[in-house]
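Subject: Predicted fold for Periplasmic dipeptide transport protein, 533 residues

User T.R. writes:
Posting the sequence so we have a shared reference for the thread.
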Amino acid sequence: MRVRRLAAWTALPLAVTLGLAACGSGGDGGSGGSDSSVVSIQIAEPKHLVPTNTTETSGSQVLAGLFSPLVDYDAQNKPYEVAAQSITSSDNKVWTIKLKDGFTFHNGEKVTSEDYINAWNYGAYAPNGQDSNFFFEKIAGYADLQGKAPKAKEMSGLKKVDDLTFTATLSEPYIDFKTTLGYNAFYPMPDAAFSAPGVLKDSYEQAPIGQGPFKMKGAWQHDSKIDVERYDAYPGDKPKVKNIEFRIYQQLTAAYADVLADNLDVLPTIPTESLSTAPSDLGDRYRTSPMSSFQFLAFPTFDKDYSSPDVRKAISMAIDRDEITKSVFKGSQTSARSFVSPVLPGYRENTAGKAGEFNPTEAKKLYQAAGGPSKIVISYNGDGGHKDWVDATVNQLKANLGVDAVGSAEPKFADLLTKVEKKTPVGAFRMGWVMDYPTMEDYLGPLYSTNGSSNYYGYSNPEFDKLVKEGSAAKTQDEAIAKYQQAEDILAKDMPVIPLRFGENVFGHSSKVKNVEMDLFQRVNLVKIEAAS
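User M.O. replies:
I've generated the structure tokens; pasting them so everyone works from the same file.
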């Protein structure tokens, strides 16, 4: 998540206003801007645009306009109903989900409970290869949909009650199930998305049909743009602008030049090389807000060069996080020495212990004793503004460990993820996480569980898996947090990744728009933004 939410850009934490507004009697959508106005927002090329297959921030940003979630989150990170009328359970195991009446897909189909059941079953069916498959694992019957030859195509835990009601029975109690339902994997898909039961049309991803405040305008123009327009039949709060162009950039520097020249309306992430001048360049169009990002350096733990926890700890101790945060990020990020974001209950400082402390002398001794590789490669996506901090990191590793160290850029984040998924040798690699939903479990389960959806490094520890599972099944939040903290302590011992930085939204916009807000998930609030005149 993300994390939705693997983050392509240098994540720069918690917008006061979150996501899509709750359903209500919103205005007619025209206030503050002309119906002919087009707001342009920079994104990277998404990897996917199918809800159950989208786990990075750019794809999530687009889907946040096309779909409406069952729940969103208030300023205290508590879920509130959006497309759902109610989500209830007496035992945290059997959940009853009632939908609000009046939602329709962009092709006119009425949204029903079956649209959720069909979409979730599609995402959970292993042969479909959906990146968010993992998020359905707590639903009863999920195991029967796994493997090359699954026993079933539908989860036994999903049952239709009526057109607007269905139940989700879990394999065991899960205290945060309602909270997870704000994630895009749990969006519905219409009958029109499928060519046959459980078979998604090849064309659907190029022009997804959702039930949110915007609908596709044409098809996805790869490496160029994605156009959407206001869906006037949306029953919730109406967007203030009619058209949004998600403009795809290969380089943040080019996007920054465009926002300065008023040729781009919203740049969600200021490039690192412009952080020192952006406040004066943009004036009151330079903005910051809290966000949930976590930047880290990951290791292919299946590679003998990085299979030793001591090698990974030594590399961590050889990196001066505070210096890089100051010199490269101009204080716009904070050093991370824990595996869970400080925006969440249960966060503790410095859970990495000594491995998170800068100590070049001890780092070199430990590295040599553990037989670390003579050359360290750090792979990163070239479309994400990472070069400066990667260069600074490899220079520190050269100086502090006495090894050769280089950065290696892949053209796009999707390219890097594809190589990592195929276990193509890339050395160590940068990763970013923006939470899928506000729980500690979201920073642990997807990233480090043996079968975690975003465990790209092959990490596996049965005791860790057990503790995360016990935390999920806890009866109270306090009990859950205690288990999650124990699981985090295991990460500190094994160090499958190196925590580097926690970020915040550092963004800019043109003079043509106003009311630009970004949320915890590094997304622009598409309902509130409007034309300046």
